[in-house]
Write a structure and sequence with these properties.
four-stranded mixed β-sheet, alpha/beta, 7 strands, three-stranded mixed β-sheet, Hypothetical Protein Aq_1857, Chain: A, single chain, 107 residues
């Protein structure tokens, strides 16, 4: 079975920069509320994880979570975490003038 979440080199560099600036970070894959369907990057522990959240894996040293029901509705995709130009919207930390995005990977 392939990894459920992986990251590009650019995303890993952004995570490292954010970790140096803010301490350990975490990701939560949003399902369409405040940040659309974008990954939200926060200082680790800032978002309480519920029993309904699923840990998909680690990207760098950062845990990556998603709501378990949403993950099932989306047919259990594998995600690739990447960065894109422009500042993040909503609650997510950004790395300079970039924000995090996820792409689904076909396996």
């Amino acid at each position: 079975m392939s990894a459920q979440v992986s990251a590009t080199d650019d995303a890993l560099e952004a995570i490292e920069a954010l970790t140096l600036a803010h301490g350990r970070v975490m990701f939560f894959q949003s399902g369409g509320c405040c940040d659309g369907s974008s990954p939200i990057c926060l200082p680790d522990g800032e978002l309480p994880i519920s029993p309904h959240d699923l840990l998909l894996g680690q990207v760098g040293d950062a845990p990556f979570y998603i709501d378990a029901d949403l993950y099932e509705r989306w047919n259990r995709p594998s995600f690739l975490l990447d960065v894109s130009p422009a500042a993040p919207e909503g609650f997510s930390l950004g790395a300079g003038d970039t924000h995090f995005v996820t792409r689904t990977i076909q396996v």
